[in-house]
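Z., the sequence and structure:
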Amino acid sequence: MEILNRFFRDSHQSYFLFGPRGTGKSTWVKQHFKSALYIDLLAPEVFRSYSAKPERLRNIAEAQNSVSTIVIDEIQKIPQLLDVIHQMMEQHPEWRFVLAGSSARKLKRSGVDLLAGRALLKSMHPFMAAELEGKFSMDEALTIGMVPLTINSESPGETLNAYTALYIREEVQMEGLVRNIGAFNRFLESASFSHGAVLNISDVARDCQIGRKTVEGYFSILEDLLLAFRIPVFRKRAKRNLTFHPKFYYFDAGIFRSIRPSGPLDSPQEIDGAALEGLIAQHLRAWISYSGNLCNLYFWRTKSGNEVDFILYGKDNFYAIEVKNSAKIHPKSVNGLIAFKEDYPDAQTCLLYRGTERIKIKNVLCMPCEEFLLNLYPKKPIRL
């Protein structure tokens, strides 16, 4: 398997490296820390050894002739190790810890408060288009997604279909996060209809016939397992009456497609449009994360119907981006961006579409989605 260079960058201090399963965390740490003390808690014998006696980590590390970096993969499987790591950090400030994991849920409940700020929080995301360069295909990205595990598979479709089932079995069932796995499965499908839309938890609860509080807990589980995220409404110095509910996305367009049920009454254009918006969302999240979290991601929607899919707002960044799954642009498509520009003249506006030419409509730049994604590089300004 060819190993591609990732945009994720190492840090000189200890850090947690969180990311969904299959995004390449283990591959990255093995490639970059070949001389480190590496502990893989996915290995059954290793898990049994450290879960029975977490302080064994200190004994192993102190027995090394030379150690500067200690890597622990799937750290969430034994939260008790954080107490030992905390002590080791105080006794050996020269040691650095890289703690990789696919879920922060059990760690948050451990009471250690993620080492009380002694370790940074960093994230690994699915591939960005610019990481794949010439290997990037928009059609494939919208069909199988951008998760390295899927892209590098000999059978991407089968791997994608098995992904969610694997997550449910290993993360949800084995850790006992939900009592009724059947209800959770119904919830996953129901939530997929909210992908790229304003989230109404009561509607989801009614659709899958589950209590509202239970559904709220299920959404929290999805976010803790890094399978999904929400983006809030942009409300800075609001001049209009805005909606309050956030928008919801699964973390990858391919994962969304594998969960979203389809039938004769489902419009392919509707599913394709949601997948495209999710693909842009996951790229913007990765760009923000790898750039050092210098801005935040929002959306904007007034109660009168004006909407902009994505707002990036920070000290040196202010962008308003609309996404359309169409090869042609109707003049009405830019109305939301024009309304936003009236309220926020400093914002740079752009509409992304499936066409092949850069054009301007009502003084709004419209550019191809593929061009935008391939030119999206962390720590570099967005090229409009």
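The chain has 17 helices and 14 strands. The chain has two domains: 15-123, 129-374.

Let me know what you think.
H.
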